[in-house]
Protein 1
Amino acid sequence: MMAPPHSKESRQMTLLLDIITTAAILFIIATGLLTIFGVLKIINFAHGAWLTVGAYCAVAVGDLGWNPWAALPVAFVTGAALGGLTERFIVRPLYARPLDAILATWGLGIIIGQLITLGFGRDVQFTKALLPGTADVFGTSYSVYRLFALAAAIAIGLGFSWLMEGTRLGLSARAVIMNEALARALGLDTRRIRWVTFMIGCGLAALAGTLLTPLTSVDPNMGVAWLVGSFMLVMVAGQSFAALALACLLLGGAQVIVSTYVSPILGGITVAVLAAVVLRISPKGFSRV
Amino acid sequence: MKRTLAIAALAGSLLAAPVFAKDPILIGVPVGLSGANSVVAPSVVQAAELAVDQINAKGGVLGRPLKLVVADDASGAVGAQKAFDSLVFQKNVNVLISMETSAARNAGLPIVAKGKIPYIYTSFYEGHACSPYLYVDAWVPEQQVPPVVDYLKDKGAKTYFLIGSDYAFGRGMLGFARKYIDKTGGKVVGEEYLPMDGTDWTPIISKLKASGADALITSTAGGAPNVTLTKQLRNSGVTIPYANLAVDEGTAKSMGKDAAGILISASYITGIDSKANKDFMAALKKKFGDKTRTPNDLSVPQYEGVYLYAKAVEKAGTTDTRPVLKALGEVSFTGPRGTISMNKQHHAPLTMYLGQVQDDGSVKVVKSFKNVDPGAQCPKL
């Protein structure tokens, strides 16, 4: 049987960990979407499908009998490769028509979902647990995997900052974000920058899908549930990774607090409601952070 | 998809049947070939096909062959209205026998009442669906919950935490569980729900851990939410006795180590050690080979439902609705789950099995409860 009810300190510690790790998971899920939105100014509504592709990479890696951790690079590469093809054949003609791009990527998401259903069936799939069990955090037992997700979110955040601030590609991408016409006039190959950015965005989405597998069911529709939340967070965050981290922490934290103290059912709509409120008050969201 | 399946079902039953001089008796099977039930629907269709084949091989019913007409209800109310409408008024089926969601059943019932034909519902559900045309041969909460709570109580549990998906079945099951726990001297220290498409159970799990409950009972929507909750529970190191009212044997098996120790309560488990069950499993294997879907607590009642209908028509000597409805409450059939008779206010007393998932994924029967009464489901019938 379980130990007697936890002390007040332990409950507060759990709440704090719940907030931080929930924010971390939201951040991981939303980075791919933000990358594409930030540079290309289009919303990739196939984002949910790329998450699903990543999760099925974990399934495939498991079926092949490989080390479950191999799923992480496999998912990134698969997502990036498929993203590259998508950009070339579907998204590229639609940059001037962002609304059509939403429609096209949404449709693409449905097609990917159906292809996965054809390939793997509709059933729920199972993957090996990456890091089972709990660890002791200042006297509170807590899920090791959620703590790992926090580390993964920080790694992705730092890795991306480095990519944007410390590399040639990042510099070019920032130039495209600020003024694409000027960047092109200065001789930057903006077409290639868009292409690579889209690949990275899809790769990150697939990576996130793999990272989700220990926390969620893997089925052809799994991505849809995560798409709406990521979309809201990206709308609030605008183009900045720091703003995204802040949005995840505030909105995700509010979700945990509402779920804990009011009702998990209301908690489920907290992110959407708060995002709407934030955008009403400040149409640019947190993007000036 | 649905058309090919319907044709396949048709072809299957025609090929196997001896030559009959008379018109076939048409059995309408509205079922969720798409949507939430699509994972389980193929096993339900297979079970119905097998029953029809076996009955036809023995000369049919009243010298007439049985024939299935399968229609997709898309697992929901809108699809069910179309499927029921088409089966009842265009295909003119003699009876409807099928496992469906509660939403689909509720949407279909008025159409059945208008068409005035018998409807055998073969899915377990939240209980208290009553209509003169409706018979049910699967379990209701009054049959499924008590074995679980009694067992946990015997193991020393005094306080319980309940977690479910926010929909009619989830709330219905846990609402009944709460009443039963209160009645038997236990205490519910928490009851929490997440929307059906919810993915993050973390705050609820934190509450569960803080509550210090002795045992956990869950009733989520089948499939994804169930798997997600179980994974997150295991990740968080929850080790208290855990009864899952919504997991089926197949899902529990494929969840592997995460499912180990989970208690399940069902009227059918593949491991039932009876001749009828072994014969049934062998016949299924023979007919469908490696395409065989593992039989389960939803497909076996479908198989028995077809037999119960055949028996009722034989007893009534006609397919006319009124005499068949009367006979449905009187006949019995001994199938994989034992001897089934829908003689309790259009519901059936059932033997319930309490199973525990083992480390290797198999389900071991811990205890069985003979002929559990469905209680007063429809006092007015």
Protein 2
Amino acid sequence: METLKTLGRELLERAKVLFEFWKIIVSTAESVLFRFNLGRKATLDVLLKQVYFTAFEALPIISWIALIIGLIIVTQALSILPRLGGEGLIGEILVWVLIRELGPVFASVIVIARSGTAMASELGLMKSSNEVSALEVMGIDPMHYLIAPRVLGTMISVFVLTFYFEAISILGGYLLAGFGKNIAFSVFVDSIMQAMGFVEVSVSLLKSLLFGLIIGTVSSYYGLRVKRSITEIPQATTKAVMGSLRLVFVTDAVITILFFI
Amino acid sequence: MGTLVDIKSVSCYNEAGRPLFEDASLSFSGGERVLIIAPVASGKSVLIRMLAGLSMPDKGTVRVFGEDIASLTKDGLNKLRQRMGFVFHDSVLISNLKVIENVALPLIYHRAALSYEDAMQKAARLLEGTGFRGDLWGLPGMLPLYAKKEIALARALVLRPEIIVCENLWDGLTDTEKTGLSSLLLQYHKSNPGGLLVFTALSDADAPHVRPHRVIRIEGCMISEELRA
């Protein structure tokens, strides 16, 4: 009985947190769709800074991770496929692995590590030092000025980084491994273009936007949950990372099952 | 002058449920300078934060500009707050914004018709008016306390508010600095005769040269008032 009660309490607690995530998503949608003119210059500035930090400054790390992943996958594929008599499947393998799965997931994991942590700790610090209250007394809605541009900026960034990751890993994979195996670039590209359909691109796009929404929402939620003590900030950051990872992987599994089973 | 703030039968309790003050009724009109004196953790911050809707009364009503703050929507409260300037006791500047951006933020956010350059110029003029001599384009984090208070004051004045609330403005300042900030506020108040100026302090001695019209004291859950010439 006691176990059931504990389980019930735990489930209720999780449901409450999910409801808080939902409130942030609704408030962001409301800001973007219906209040975009309110404090436009100020919120646009926050949005641009978020995209600059999350997407632009992440390009070097994304580039070399994408190159290495591309190299590993192309090398593995080229070492296994000839033994199975499927040399022509290199395009399919790359599209299945990189575009359907690894592109959105790797871009998200890097954004969680760099920007999710930064967002949660920055908002936590702002909350604990009363900066959020300072915005409120200026008549500035923190959800509109602080949260909506961060969530939207994270969505845009994960979207851009996903496609960048996919392009670099495919091209890098060819340059580093395919080139050595004497595969013509046009054959390589043709093979990928044939394997890449509308569904592959749409699913990659959908995943990247949803993962960005999750990272922005979860990181903002845990950042804003900090109260007065700065010792809560590292805890909030850890919870933001774990919460984002958990939700990104669950959403990834759900979308994959829905589209590809 | 009309009533700007009307507090009726208000009671507030701390987190432990102990009353900070009970059944308090006060009203403040335009043109008044009010000093609220109370020991630490006795409810003066709660009282003044209620004016901006940052905290709500446990009982009673608080009307600001004729509006009951408890019944206002988020947008209504934000509109009301634009008519009010608030200086927190620890200044509370936005740490990732430059000094000038801190002051210009309310203008950039609320005055869509004003260009970015005009907002920055206005902010620079206000900062100059408060006597701020630091780097306008630096971050405020490492600035001395007095400079932070000057910036917070400029930010509170930037939308030309009708009510200015200063929470423990003089804490941690030297006597010269205290006098400097007080003179600035009095000067602003003189140029806006319909406005209301509310200060909080630990004692009379902490509030130099503000020449209040009324002194409100909170002690042992009781609020008493003294009128001054």
